[in-house]
Amino acid sequence: MAGSIRIGHTFYAQKAVPTKDGKPLRVTNKDGKPLRIVQVSLGTDSRAEALRKLPAAVADIEAMFARARGEGGLAGEALALRDRDPRDWFDDALQRTDLPETFYHVAGGNAQPVTEALRRWHDDATDVRTGKTRQMDEQAVALLQAKLGELVTVEGVGRTEAADFLWWLKRQQSRDGKRRSSATLDRLRSSLSSLWDWLIEEGKRTDLENPWRGHGGRRRRKKTGGNDIPGARKRTPYTDDQLVALLSGRPRQPALADVLRIGLFSGMRLDEICSLRASDVTDGVMHVREGKTENAERDVPIHLAIAGVFRRRITGKACDDPLFPDIPEGGPDGTRGFNASKWFTRYRRSVGVEPEPGKLLDFHSLRHTFKTAMHDAGVHPRTIDWLCGHAPPGMTGVYDAGPNKAERRRAIRKLRYPKKVMEAV
Length: 425
Known about the structure:
Order of helices and strands: EEEEEHHHHHHHHEHHHEEEHHEHHHHH
Structural class: mainly alpha
Number of helices: 18
Strand content: 5-15%
Number of strands: 10
Largest sheet: 3 strands, antiparallel
Strand order of the largest sheet: 1-2-5
Oligomer: single chain
Distance between the termini: 58 Å
Radius of gyration: 25 Å
């Protein structure tokens, strides 16, 4: 139990150090001495003031315990803020640049970190998840964090994110030279699927569906959309006003302005844009060499609205030079898209572009915006799918070579956004 105690003229918050696996958590003072009771000064001799400050101080102590349990980092910080008045910490949090959007959802009690879910599951299933099984569970969650961010939440993983993660695992398999067998990949997926099953069945999370089912084994993964999962946040296109806000602002990183415009007028994925080299831009097209699907390799015509971006970026570069050397590589797979994604999220928030409740807005939403605009312009769905690197629905995608060069150019020339959006470009 937590409470307050008066020592001399000052009140202190205090709480006993809990145990883990039958042993007290390793919590020490500044001299490295183990503590059995943690005390934090409330900085007042007034009982009324002490009672007002007590919840925040207890939350800080809980964060200390979370770090000792291995729930540190952003998850520990966010969980520790749940019992505090947002007025006490929200303004300070906004000044930080290392907090993802999920931090506020977790701190507000609206999302659950996957790491916390894993701990609760293991605490509950001590007779089932043991030894190597636990190690595989922990490895799967660590890899999920590496791909989706330290503070990945249960609510933030839908079928789209699950499919992207599994594709990423397979890609990593050949990139780092340490090939994981198909059996190992399936065990990692199975660990995450079992965690979600426990959350739904034993954790009483009836609002969830298991996004890891239907991807397993050595069968070819069928593309599925996270927007079809009940309760999942639905990714939506940007509105005209939101596009104007994004295009009119000035990102701290100038490269982001170029990437944003290319995404809006090409429908390309963020990694595809950031991976372009000077030699990939020839004869008025962008050549996408690889991507997340078999249909990713394609030539996308350059829209007149962004031709100046490419002229400026190609000038003075050798054929093998990256088009975006000013975006540093990062993340576990060393891609420029990793940092560009973080930049975009911070920039989107800075210009006040936020999703409606239950909706999702990110860089990928530009693809939805592009597809909507192309559809409104009367472009055939087959051509839109091909330009976006998707196979047409059904078996035709296996045999369809896609629209010819002239058809692709005509389709891109049809693309036009409302006047105020075009003026902001």
